[in-house]
Amino acid sequence: MFSVVTGIGGAAEAADPVSITIPQKMGNGETVEVYYRKGNPLTAPRVRAAEHKTETLLLKKGTIRREGAMPLPCDIIMEKDTPVTLRDGTVIYTDIFRPADEGRHPALMAWSPYGKEIGGQMLDDVPMRAGIPVAATSGLEKFEGPDPAYWVSHGYVIINPDSRGAYYSEGNLNYWGSQNSQDGYDTIEWAAKQPWSNGKIGMSGNSWLTVSQWFIAGEQPPHLAAIAPWEGFVDHFRETANRGGIPNPVFPEAIFDTFTSQNYLEDQPRMVVTHTLMDAYWQDKIAKLENIKIPAYVVASYTNPVHTHGTFAGFREIASKDKWLRVHNTQEWFDYYTPGNMEDLRKFFDHYLLGEDNGWEATPKVRLAVLDPGHEDVVNRVEQEFPLARTEYKKLYLTGGQGLSVTPQKQEDTASYDTSVKEAVAAFTMTFDKDTELTGYMKLHTYVEADGADDMELHVQVEKLDEKGNPIPDRMTHQPIVAEGYLRVSQRALDEAKSTEVEPVLKHDREDLLKKGEIVPVDIPIWPMGMKYHAGEKIRLTVRAYNPPSPDMVPAFGSAKITVPEEGYTYEPGTKVSMKTVGGLDGRSYVKKTVTPPKTRNKGRHIIHLGGKYESYLQVPVVPEK
Q1: What does DSSP assign to residue 203?
Q2: Does 217 share its domain with 111?
C-alpha cells in the first residue's frame, strides 16, 4: 500500500515529480510512512548501467579493463549478475571475482547502490581522480571498494552487490537502516555457503561502503569475521541529515543524481525536511555499534565534512576487543588505494580471514596524525587510545575585545552580528606563546540571544592562522582546515545520559523556541581535530549565521565518459576490440532537485553574551608531550 504525494510545505515545487509514501516497519517495530520517488532511468548516460547478463567469464592475466589501467596480475573468474535471494524473496544481483581454482577462499564484500561494475560514481568524475592514477587500479573495482585485481591475486574473493533496488536488483532502494542491514546479513550468509568460500567474510570500502559496514555488522551475521570501516558516519540524523538540528537535504539531493532503479528510491531529502526531530525513522538510521564484537580496522581523518565524527565514534563505541584506529592526513580515496595502506589492510584480513600468524596483533592500537599546515604533519604517531588519556581540557574564554583568554572576563559584555549580512561573524582569536597541540574533541559553551526571531541557526568554526592572522591552506585541498559545529538553538537540549564534559550530545526530541529578550546557555559540539600550533600562530573561533552548503560540494558524478569492451569485460593491450563509451551528462539524465533547504530561521541580530555571569568559553584538548 502507498499514498501519492505531490508537494510538501514549500520544500518542493508544484511541478515536482510524483512522490509516494510507503508504510515501513522500523527496527523498533514502529511503522513510519516513508517517502519514495523515482530516480534516474537505467538508460540515463550518467548512471553508466552495464548490460544485465548472468554469465561466467575468465579474465586472463595481463588483460586490461580500460586503456591505461593496471593489467590483471592473475587469471580471475568473474561470475556476473549472480542472483541472491533475500529473506523476503527479493532478488538482488552481485558480481563475484574469484581465483581461477577450485579452492576455498575468504571474501570481501563491498555493499552499496552505486553500481557493481562502472556505475554512476567513479574516480574519473573527481578532479585529478583525487590523486589516484588510472594505472593504480584495474578498473574492476566498484566505486570506493576493494580492487579485485589486487585481492584475487592474494587469494581473496570480491563480492560486489547492487543492493536492494539499485540497477537491476529488485525492490526499492533504501538508505541504510534495518532493512538494508538485514539484506547485507542475508548476502553474507549466502556467500559463506558458496563452494568457493572458506566461511569467513570481511567487509571493506570507503564512505557509503563504510556506513554499510557499521550497520550490517550491527546485525551480527555469523560468518562476518572482520570489518575495515574507512571513513563513514554512524548516526545519520546527528552527523549528516540534521546536524545540530538543522535540516540539510543538499548532500542527499546531489547524490540522487547518480542513483538508478527500476522501482523507487527512498526519498531521504524529503524525510530530512519533514522529520526534523529524532523519531523512529531516524533511530533506525543509527548503527548498533554495541553489537559489533568482531575485529575492526578503522581509518579516520579530521577533514571529512560528512564522516569525521562517525568514524571516531564507531571506533570508540564498538564492543570489539580487537580494534585498531589509524588517522591519516590526506583524503579517504587516496588513502584507501595507496599501495602501502592496501598491504597493511591485507595483513589485517590475512590474520583474521586466513588465520595467518603474521604479527598483526602487535600493530599499535592507535596510529595518529596531527595536522600542521605551514609545517610538516605528524603521521602514524603511536598511541594507545582515542581520545588520548593524557589530554588536558582547557577553557579559552570569549572576551569583548574579540579575543580568547585563559582567564574569564569579569565584566559582562556582548558580541553580535546582523544575520542579513552574508559574511558577518563574531570572531575571537588568541596567539599561542608556545608550541601547543590540540587533538581531540572541542565544544563551545556560550549564552545566546536572538534579537528579532524566535530561533537561531549557528555555524561554529575553529581554525589555525599564521603569525600574521591569515588562514593557512591545506596542501591537498588548498582550503583552510576547520573544525566545525552546528546548532539550531531551539534543539539545544542535551541528552544527559550520553553527554560528557568533553562531548555534549544533543537530544533532538523537541523544540524550545526563544522568547523576546531571552538569553539561553548552549553547548555546541565541535568535531574532532588534531592540530599543531607553533608559538606565534593563532587560533580563531568564529560564530556565524548558518547558510546551507552549495550543491557543488558533491562532484559531478556520472560526467566522465569511460570506454570499455562491448564483450569479454577485459582485453589484451594493443588489440583492436569492439568498444563502447558510457557516461556523460545530458538534460534528461538529471534527477530534478525536488527538495531544497527550508527557509532559514535566522532573522535580525544574533547576540553572544560573555563575561561576568555569562562565562562563555571554547574548551580545547591540550595534549602534552609524552
Answers
A1: E
A2: yes
Same domain for 475 and 349? no
Location of C-alpha cell 540515463: 44
Please tell me whether residues 354 and 403 are part of one structural domain.
no
Domain count, the chain: 2
- Cis ω on the peptide bond leading into residue 387 (within 30° of 0)? yes
Closest to 175 measured CA to CA, from 291, 339, 374, 34: 34
Determine the average pLDDT of the residues in 100-128. 95
Q: Are residues 470 and 328 located together in one domain of the fold? A: no
pLDDT band at 19 (very low <50, low <70, confident <90, very high): confident
Averaged confidence pLDDT in the chain = 94
Write the CATH number for 485.
2.60.120.260
Same domain for 235 and 119: yes
Does pLDDT of 587 surpass 70?
A: no
Residues spanned by the domain of 221 = 3-363
Do the domain assignments include residue 237? Answer: yes
Task: Write out pLDDT tens, residues 329-363.
Answer: 999 999 999 999 999 999 999 999 999 999 999 99
The interaxial angle of helices 208-217 and 308-317, nearest 10 deg, is: 20
Percent of residues, the chain, with pLDDT higher than 70: 96
Cα–Cα–Cα angle for 506, 510, 514, nearest 5°?
Answer: 95
Helix intervals (H) in 87-144:
none
- Regarding whether 487 and 435 lie in a shared domain, the answer is yes
Q: How confident is the model at residue 479 (pLDDT cuts 50, 70, 90)?
A: confident
Give the gyration radius of the chain's Cα atoms. Answer: 25
DSSP SS3 for 200: strand
210 in a domain, yes or no?
Answer: yes
CATH number at residue 358: 3.40.50.1820
**Shared-domain flag, residues 315 and 449:** no
Q: What is the DSSP string of 552-615?
A: GGS--TT-S-EEEESSSS-B-TT----EEEE----TTTSPP----PPPP---SEEEEEEBTTB-
Share of the chain above pLDDT 90, in %: 89
406 burial type by CB count under 10 A (0-12 exposed, 13-18 middle, 19+ buried)? exposed
608, pLDDT greater than 70 = yes
| pLDDT single digits (tens) 507-537 | 999 999 999 999 999 999 999 999 999 999 9
The pLDDT tens digits of the residues spanning 146-183 come to 999 999 999 999 999 999 999 999 999 998 999 999 99
Query: 522 lies in a domain?
Result: yes
Q: Band of the pLDDT at 494, cuts 50, 70, 90?
A: very high
3-state secondary structure string, 402-456?
CEEECCCCCCCEEEEEECCCCCCEEEEEEECCCCEEEEEEEEEEEEEEEECCCCC
The mean per-residue pLDDT over the stretch 90-107 comes to 98
- Closest to 174 measured CA to CA, from 121, 224, 215: 215
Phi-psi map region of 569: left, alpha, beta (phi>0 left; psi -120 to 50 alpha): left
The pLDDT of residue 14 is: 34
Grid cell digits, residue 242: 540534521
In a domain, 117, yes or no: yes
3-state secondary structure of 13: coil
Same domain for 537 and 405, yes or no, is: yes
Question: SS3 sequence, 249-300?
Answer: CHHHHHHHCCCEECCCEECHHHHHHHCCCCCHHHHCCECCHHHCCCCEEEEE
- The pLDDT value recorded for residue 11 is 39
DSSP letter (8 states) at residue 181: H
Q: What is the distance, to the nearest Å, from the Cα of residue 304 to the centroid of all Cα atoms in its chain? A: 8
Which amino acid is it at 487? Answer: L
How far is the CA of 489 from the CAs of 246, 506, 518, 602, in angstroms? 9, 11, 12, 11
